[in-house]
Automatic annotation (TrEMBL):
It holds the Pfam family AIRC. Substrate binds at S10, D13, R40. The gene is purE. Residues 2-153 form the PurE domain. SUPFAM superfamilies: N5-CAIR mutase (phosphoribosylaminoimidazole carboxylase, PurE) (SSF52255). InterPro entries: PurE_ClassI (IPR033747), PurE_dom (IPR000031), PurE_prokaryotes (IPR024694). The keyword tRNA processing does not apply. This is N5-carboxyaminoimidazole ribonucleotide mutase.
């Protein structure tokens, strides 16, 4: 069964949320993605979280735009860590989503990521770090990823500037 469950409010969120899946693939973490809407299918939220817990999912990544209720509503139905990804909206460019996710009331925690593709990729990375606390192979992959990032920066640290 998948270690990470990626949920989104609509299929149109996939271009953003696939960045989480790509990161998880790169780090050797199994994942599954589904569409579950906080507004159109609210009855599926508790059953989806119960199923995730029964199937040993370790982390839930939830992407949502607009009112962005999905991450918070999912967190209300589970003890699993939920990472919220604000998906950019046409009207407010994702600021509405960010504020909806980050302003959770005391007692219902959602880890809030950056708006858009970077936030989704970092949600995948953070989920891998969480999985890595109990999976040495994933922990090694995360450490290797970080080392590669470091080497890339060092290799490109010399700038030749024309003044």
């Amino acid at each position: 069964m998948a270690s990470v469950l990626i949920l989104m409010g609509s299929q149109s969120d996939w271009p953003v949320m696939q960045n989480a899946a790509t990161m998880l693939n790169d780090l050797g973490v199994s994942w599954e993605a589904r569409v579950v809407s906080a507004h159109r299918t609210p009855d599926l939220l508790p059953t989806t979280m119960k199923e995730a817990e029964q199937n040993d999912v370790q982390v839930v990544i939830a992407g949502a735009g607009g009112a962005a209720h999905l991450p918070g509503m999912l967190a209300a139905f589970t003890h699993l860590p939920v990472l919220g990804v604000p998906v950019p909206s046409k009207q407010l460019k994702g600021l509405d989503s960010l504020l909806s996710i980050v302003q959770m009331p005391k007692g219902v925690a959602v880890g809030t990521m950056a708006i858009g593709e970077a936030g989704a990729a970092n949600a995948g990375l953070l989920a891998a770090q969480i999985v890595g606390t109990t999976n040495p192979d994933v922990q090694h992959n995360v450490q290797e990823f970080r080392a590669n990032q470091r080497e890339t920066v060092i290799a490109n640290s010399t700038l030749e500037l024309d003044l």
